[in-house]
């Protein structure tokens, strides 16, 4: 595993990029609640060379002030892919990263050999609204994301939540990083997590795997059927007893689904 910094657009962005594994390239785009150690990345690295960048505003990546809308984010990712010479490979995204992955697969369909969306944002169904997690207390978000009242805190923005017994400095640092990450995510998801993907998603032509947790309290599983109807070559896997973080709760199972999605 290697961690490196990639400068883009003359230093406007500095990207914290994790690379792990050998094999065919795979780009992983994280969600809001991915922690610093992603178990799915580790599983996928057994068969792929995984590139996992942190979006500016998350981890130590910088330049979030230059990402004002979804179009800025897409061109940011395209600049990054050019910089790391990612010309063709698989694409996986979770949550917010799933929305970006769907947008990338629509903008440059020839670049991605397969697409996996794990509970992505991007569509809106007024009959099944996505809760305003920006206004929810951290404990409420954790319960909704985990599909149960586990009492376990969530990582946010690539920073692990401090234990309840942690010192004040750890809790303050986490609160600061949480606010930074949520502010970055709000550019694309607030007040509604809908930036017009429905108008472009028909362009996705890569074989697509959709993965949802049956107990997802952030993005209801009914959205899986919405995505499946809009992406021609797609199939949906709904995992029982799993919440919004299917890739963290059952990383080996999700990795196996991804690795076998082309069979």
Task: Give the termini separation.
Answer: 28 Å
Our Rg estimate from Cα atoms comes to 17 Å
How many strands appear in the DSSP assignment? 8
Strand order of the largest sheet: 1-2-4-3-5-6-7-8
Q: How big a fraction of the residues is strand?
A: 15-25%
Give start-end ranges of low-pLDDT stretches: none
Query: Counting H and I runs of at least 4 residues, what is the number of helices?
Result: 8
- SSE series: EEEHEHEHEHHEHEHH
Q: Biggest sheet: strands, sense, closure?
A: 8 strands, mixed
Residues in helices, as a percent range: 25-40%
Overall average residue pLDDT: 94
Task: Return the structural class.
Answer: alpha/beta
Q: How would the global form be characterised?
A: globular
Could you give a short description of this structure?
The chain is α/β, with parallel strands linked by helices and 263 residues long. The protein has helices at residues 39-44, 70-83, 96-107, 138-146, 168-189, 222-230, 246-249, 251-259; strands spanning 2-8, 13-20, 24-29, 48-53, 89-94, 112-118, 208-213, 234-239. The protein is 32% helix and 20% strand.
């Amino acid at each position: 595993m290697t961690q490196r910094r990639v400068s883009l657009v003359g230093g406007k962005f500095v990207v914290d990029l994790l690379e792990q594994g050998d094999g065919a390239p795979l780009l992983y785009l994280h969600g809001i609640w991915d922690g610093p150690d992603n178990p799915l990345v580790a599983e996928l690295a057994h068969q792929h060379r995984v590139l996992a960048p942190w979006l500016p505003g998350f981890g130590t990546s910088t330049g979030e002030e230059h990402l004002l809308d979804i179009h800025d984010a897409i061109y940011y990712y395209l600049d990054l892919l050019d910089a790391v010479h990612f010309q063709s490979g698989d694409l996986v995204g979770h949550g917010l990263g799933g929305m970006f992955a769907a947008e990338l697969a629509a903008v440059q369909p020839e670049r991605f050999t397969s697409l996996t969306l794990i509970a992505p944002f991007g569509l809106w169904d007024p009959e099944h609204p996505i809760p305003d997690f920006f206004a929810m207390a951290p404990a409420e978000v954790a319960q909704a994301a985990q599909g149960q009242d586990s009492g376990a805190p969530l990582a946010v923005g690539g920073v692990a939540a401090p234990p309840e017994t942690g010192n004040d400095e750890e809790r303050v640092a986490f609160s600061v990083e949480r606010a930074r990450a949520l502010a970055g995510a709000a550019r694309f998801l607030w007040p509604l997590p809908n930036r017009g993907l429905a108008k472009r998603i028909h362009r996705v032509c890569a074989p697509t795997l959709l993965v949802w947790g049956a107990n997802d309290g952030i993005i209801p599983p009914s959205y899986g059927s919405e995505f499946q109807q809009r992406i021609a070559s797609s199939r949906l896997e709904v995992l029982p007893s799993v919440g919004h973080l299917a890739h963290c709760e059952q990383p080996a199972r999700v990795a196996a689904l991804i690795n076998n999605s082309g069979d």
